Structures
1.
Amino acid sequence: MRTYARRILLTTSLLTSLYHTPTFADNSRAIDHGPIGVMGDHYHKAGEWMVSARYMRMHMSGNQTGSDTLSDAEVIAQNNAPGRMPGKLSVVPDDMDMDMLMLGAMYAPSDRVTLMAMIMASSKDMGLKSYQPPAMMGMGSGMSASSRDLVGSFSTSTDGIEAISFSGLFRLRESVQSRTHMTVGLQQSLADANATDTVLTPMGTRMRMRLPYSMQIGDEALRLKLAITHVHQSENWVFGGQAGGKFKLDSKPWNFGDSQHYTGWVQRSLNHRLSYSGRLTYERASTLEGMDPMIMAPVQTAIPANYGYRQWRIGVGLNAVIPLLPGAPERLGIEIERPFDVQVNGIQMTPKWRITLGLQKSL
């Protein structure tokens, strides 16, 4: 287990000794749940059920290396992976949208333990441009990459069931004004990592190819999920924080890297049914591990070294309690986040924004 995971487990063992009888809020107000973009921010009392649906869209456009923006001409001036043809990158990603639907259920068999299950489905759409390869232009070492002609634009897409996860939320400490809990779970990637689509090659032909790693819905890996969440509440304010991560447990021909996040939020209650929030998040992911010999297109997303990042995001959100169906009122949430100070490994697309919408129903 990675050092980060060991630290989380050590912290939780120390926090367990601080256990108190639960006296926290009854979760009936809009402010009693965190921003909709925070997963596993709360637990339930014995016998309670909750079902939820979340929709998230993320948009990316343009390209960068490190933190520096790259033009198309600068991208196609970069070397392809060693041993691949052509020797220079010749396909440039232009923009990408990723949509994710998350359906979840929570049940508390006791006051100290809440069980959570979730299934995720995703779709990805990317627009790209193909440029003539250097050899077709008689391009020597002194020839500018900007002189390579545009062959045309095309798009690729893929969709499917991404993953399923099962987790336990374990209450460590609860008092009138604060609560702390640990989340431990497993997430299994379900999608086959062999999605294909028709692409426009630098030679001007169209052919069906296996899509690059970033367009695959899953990597077939099993991951350990760990998180620690702490929430402090005053009369009309809530301050929360969460540190968590996902860590690969099994080996595959290739898989996305481990990831960690640290997020903090503040919420203000307008009234019983409405609250607003601000959130700051730091997230990092390690580079892609392994490779697929069938992913060989002359595009940056086909090179494993061009994965892994560090980024900050700032978000604003709104929670509302609205009676829509019989029984307890539903909770509606929306959160909009914008990345900043993004650092990437190699060459990658630039994230621009993400929006999360959610509906939660207690049973």
2.
Amino acid sequence: MKPLIKICGINQLKILNELVLYDQINFLGFIFYEKSPRNVSFELLQEVKSFDFKNKRPVCVYVDADRSYIEETSSYFEDPILQFHGNESNEFCNSFEKDFWKVFRINNNINFDKISHYPDASGILFENYERGKPGGTGVPFDWNLLNSVKDLDIKMILSGGINSENVDNAIDIKPWCLDINSGVESSPGVKSLDLVKEILNKI
């Protein structure tokens, strides 16, 4: 079975207008983290309020953001998923009464105990660990480590450096969803529709 597809780090309306036309894409991700080159501008947020996402679901991405900021920015979207990259607790993530994904950054092992602390997560996202970066490293981790979590009752989302050259290996892990970001960029924060088409064709 093919994995679902998320394209993350959208920060331009013209790119959003194109991506929403691709049937293969299931989720569109928006990053609300000022240190990221993919941070959503206030201008784009205004445009999103009346945007027709068709059959795609928006995902709002946060890193240890405060409650009011999360409530304010996510309110521009209809039925968004919240994605948490920081040290947020299960209780905090679940308190917004929206579906949420919790991110785990993988270095050289997987902490099963930490995963069990998020029973309410509707998806668990695995990303490469890089010191000082909460995500968006553009580098894959050892995906074979995920073989140990396949028996867990979770929806596994694979992220980190997925591009057209390694996407076949990513699919072999059999994730529920692939989270694609820097692998379809011409430079940090700049999406390339040609690279998006290339990776979708391979999938």
